[in-house]
Amino acid sequence: MQFKPQFGEVKGNIARAFALIERKSADLWVLPELFSTGYLFASRSDLLELAEPVPEGRTTRALLEFARDRGTFLVAGLAERDGAKVYNSAVVAGPGGFIGRYRKLHLFGKEKVWFDPGDLPLEPFLLDRVKIGVMICFDHFFPEVARTLSLRGAQLICHPANLVLPGMGQLSMRVRAMENRVFTVTANRIGEEARGGEVLRFTGESQVVTPDGAVLSRASRDREEAKAVEVELERALDKRITRYNDLFADRRPDFYVLWA
Ligand code: ACM
Predict the structure, then answer these.
(1) Which H, E and C letters describe 186-252, residue by residue?
(2) Which residue's CA is the nearest one to ligand 1's atom 3?
(3) Residue 209 located in a structural domain
(4) Is residue 4 in a domain?
(5) Which residue's CA lies nearest to atom 2 of ligand 1?
(6) Gap from CA of 63 to ligand 1 centroid (Å)
(7) Is the separation of the CB atoms in 169 and 189 below 8 Å?
(8) What is the pTM of this model?
(9) Cβ 164 under 6 angstroms from ligand 1
(10) How much distance in Å is there from the Cα of 154 to the middle of ligand 1?
């Protein structure tokens, strides 16, 4: 799903996001990064006012209610407050309740001023019988993130995003899908945000990518949209690309720089 949140209008953003997805049915919806607050904070204290505890806060409670009422899973980005810390997080909600959270590891630009960096392991979540990984926006520049999630069994990687560098995240998520033979779902936002003398333009083109790196579905650059596509997640369990090559078995970690 992609849309344009209004900065600070948490209640209205949640309502508008749900209005877009409730007309269609899907087993899993992915919503953008920071979907309930908007992105361009003026300061850390600006962010602290809007960040919410997880799972007690308004946004997570709304996601849990939607998931329960509609019998669906949701992955959605939000600003998480935990004591004095504040994270750029994504919540995983399901019909049976709260499943987990991911806290963005690689902060982009001024996020380094506003947020604390993520501190949770890259561990996929088990939804029914399927393992789902979560990463957020700029994490796409770090292939280790998708690799770690995939080596740990993720068949599909959910990627809530607020992408601003045209085409880059859309391109690298195709490569992340191809090199790990997993599905990826990037839920980007659209529109422009102008606050505190800064302007950001978000690039839309949310997409679902197959383990071959093919784009199965891509949204527009500038319209609010929700699309549902069917995927065969078992495909992501097979890492072979030729009779002789299995992308995971063929790795040569002895030669890689793991800590530098
Ligand atoms: C980004 O990480 N929101 C560009």
Answers:
(1) EECCEEEEEECCEEEEEECCCEEECCCCCEEEECCCCCCECCCCCCCHHHHHCCEEECCEECCCCCC
(2) 162
(3) yes
(4) no
(5) 138
(6) 22
(7) no
(8) 0.97
(9) yes
(10) 22
- Domain CATH for 54: 3.60.110.10
Residue 135 CA to residue 104 CA, distance in Å, equals 7
Atom from ligand 1 closest to the CA of residue 137: 2
Cα 178 to ligand 1 centroid, rounded to whole Å: 22
> How far apart are alpha carbons 210 and 231 in whole angstroms?
8
Q: Is the CB of 14 under 6 A from ligand 1?
A: no
What is d(CA 150, CA 124) in angstroms, rounded to the nearest whole number?
8
In 10 A of CB 166, how many CB atoms?
13
**212 close to 182: Cβ distance less than 8 angstroms:** no
Active-site residue numbers? 33, 104, 137
Altogether, the residues listed in the chain come to a count of 260
| pLDDT digit string, tens, across residues 151-173 | 999 999 999 999 999 999 999 99
Q: Which residues, in sequence order, are CB contacts of 116 under 8 Å at separation 6+?
A: 85, 86, 87
Q: Say if residue 192's pLDDT is above 90.
A: yes
Residues 71 and 95: beta-carbon distance below 8 Å:
yes
At 174 the pLDDT is 98
Distance from the alpha carbon of residue 137 to the mean position of ligand 1, in angstroms? 5
Mean pLDDT of 91-99: 98
What DSSP state is assigned to residue 20?
H
Answer whether 108 contacts ligand 1 (Cβ < 6 A). Answer: yes
Domain range for 43 is 10-255
Q: How many domains does the structure of the chain reveal? A: 1
162 lines ligand 1 (CB under 6 A): yes
The residues, ordered by sequence, that sit 6+ positions from 121 with a Cβ below 8 Å of its Cβ are none
